[in-house]
Amino acid sequence: MKFLSILIKPVSGMCNIDCKYCFYKEIALYPGKCARMSDEVMKKLIDRALETEADEILFAFQGGEPLLAGAEYYRDFIKYVSENNKSSKIAYSVQTNGMLINDEYVEIFKENNFLVGISIDGPKFVHDKYRLKYDGNGTYENVISNAKKLMNAGVEVNVLSVITGEGALKAKKIYEFYKKNGFYFTQFIPCMDPINEVQGSGENALTTDKYYTFLSELFELWYEDFMSGEYISIRHFDNWVRMVMGERSDMCSLTGVCGSYFVCESDGNIYPCDFYVSSKYLLGNIVTDSFEHLFKSLNESGFLKEAAVCLSPECKECKNFDLCRGGCKRDWVRDGNTGKSRYCSALDRFFNRYRSKMLQIASVL
């Protein structure tokens, strides 16, 4: 095995802030109590991963808020990996809301080359609209201060932003904010509606038209900077440029297939995707099941086949399918046994308008 990626939820869905658009609240396990991963589950997870003898293993921590597990959890995790790893290259990452970062966490992340993703939606008036404490106050001041603490210490920091219908109209202000603050590696994800609601109907919904407006304005700014020699990484744009060059995307939503990682909840239960943590998609438990068994369970579950067979016939004939690849099935609007992304028309318009500029960037590269 060349690569094994595991998304670990050490405290499941527990979180110390109350984001108004959080999709995980509706599917998070153990609501209302902290179920920190036990030492038994932690060690068994590491044992199972190392016994695959994968060339590279990524341990990616997420939540909820994964730093609620405590610094000792991470020190114990890293120590156990170090003591038992024989040949695999180990990489660590963590996605955090940034509220709990202190000097001890900075030290851990620095010493062990963590890639730290921090959720920041943009300047204060954008960020504090949805990313709130439980008392209703905003989180911006704490988060930006802690992000700078990490960066000043030399920790690699990426920014993850959720784009709501309102935020989509502020692309220029968000982009300029990132440049001003030295956030040069960014990722934007559309706000998701609850899984049981009609996609696009929620209060914070990102409509097709607003998504197109956001992508277009953002791309124009990004393209202008790139052509003038100033590069800021925007993950979707980076991938689309690679794809017009004939290279493979590093985002599962742009590959046309699912199954690029496993999710391990705090009790050791394993699922195929962060968006599908439910009994329907349970693959096994890391305490009792090897990754060989989990891969077999994944292949037999039907989860992988669903993305391959449910695409609308229009998708397969679309001239922009090579860049869209059908998108994430969590964003599909379904019609019987088929479905297509609710952002289909936005992406089609965007690719029609900017494919030539992507090719121009590709030629420069």
Describe the structure.
The protein is 40% helix and 16% strand. The mean pLDDT is 91. The chain is α/β, with parallel strands linked by helices and 365 residues long. It has helices at 39-51, 71-84, 103-111, 124-130, 140-152, 171-181, 208-227, 235-244, 291-301, 303-309, 313-317, 321-324, 344-364, and strands spanning 3-8, 56-61, 89-96, 115-119, 156-163, 185-190, 233-234, 262-264, 269-271, 284-285, 332-335, 338-341. It is built from 13 helices and 12 strands. Helix 1 (39-51) runs parallel beside helix 2, helix 7 (208-227) runs parallel beside helix 13 and helix 8 crosses helix 13. The chain is globular.
How would you summarize what this structure contains?
With 365 residues, the chain is of the alpha/beta class. It has helices at 39-51, 71-84, 103-111, 124-130, 140-152, 171-181, 208-227, 235-244, 291-301, 303-309, 313-317, 321-324, 344-364, and strands at 3-8, 56-61, 89-96, 115-119, 156-163, 185-190, 233-234, 262-264, 269-271, 284-285, 332-335, 338-341.
